[in-house]
């Protein structure tokens, strides 16, 4: 079988299929370079000479292109997709969270920054409310009773007078002043009459 060192359509499809078949191993094993070497050996058995690192790099590029096409399909429909590896990639990786995030992730990503902040604040507020529940309700009740009893002892502030009440009081004061002046005037006139009468009697 002739060997090839270029990424032909056959080589790419073989890479996608083997990477998809080993998805579980990639998710459960942190040392992915060994799995890429396994894929490299499978490709070599089929006449394709590619290193594990080369396979890894090529697959990353394929995933980036696939994500772009998924977004385009969500907006315009899959009929607008003409990428030849789209169906095969969707078959193996269409349900990955990195490709189709869950509803909560989509909701948060579609919100503006201020709304995200509000949501985070709301979550923190709920947590704070749960943590700040009174631990000793009886003690708080007794404190409330003491506060209420203190309110009975503290004298209440005088109610502020409105304009009409102030005007009435001023009118009353003016009337008292007029009455007092009139009384003084009458007394003065009486004394003056008495003096004049006394003078007439002497004449």
Automatic annotation (TrEMBL):
Species, as recorded: Schizaphis graminum (Green bug aphid)
Entry protein name: Trihelix transcription factor GT-1
Domain of life per record: Eukaryota
Domain Myb/SANT-like DNA-binding: 5-91
Cross-referenced InterPro entries: Myb_DNA-bind_4
């Amino acid at each position: 079988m002739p060997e090839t060192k270029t990424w032909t359509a056959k080589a790419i499809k073989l890479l996608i299929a083997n990477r998809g078949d080993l998805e579980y191993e990639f998710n459960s094993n942190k040392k992915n370079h060994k799995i890429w070497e396994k894929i490299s050996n499978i490709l070599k058995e089929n006449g394709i000479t590619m290193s594990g690192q080369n396979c890894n790099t090529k697959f990353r590029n394929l995933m980036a292109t696939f994500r772009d096409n998924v977004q385009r399909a969500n907006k315009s429909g899959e009929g607008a997709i003409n990428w030849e590896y789209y169906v095969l990639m969707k078959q193996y990786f269409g349900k990955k969270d990195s490709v189709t995030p869950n509803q909560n992730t989509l909701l948060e990503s579609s919100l503006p920054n201020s709304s995200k902040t509000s949501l985070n604040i709301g979550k923190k507020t709920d947590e704070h409310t749960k943590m700040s529940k009174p631990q000793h309700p009886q003690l708080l009740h007794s404190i409330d009773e003491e506060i209420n009893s203190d309110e009975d002892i503290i004298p209440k502030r005088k109610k502020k007078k409105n304009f009409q009440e102030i005007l009435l009081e001023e009118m009353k004061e003016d009337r008292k002043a007029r009455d007092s002046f009139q009384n003084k005037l009458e007394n003065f006139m009486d004394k003056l009459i008495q003096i004049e009468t006394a003078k007439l009697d002497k004449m």
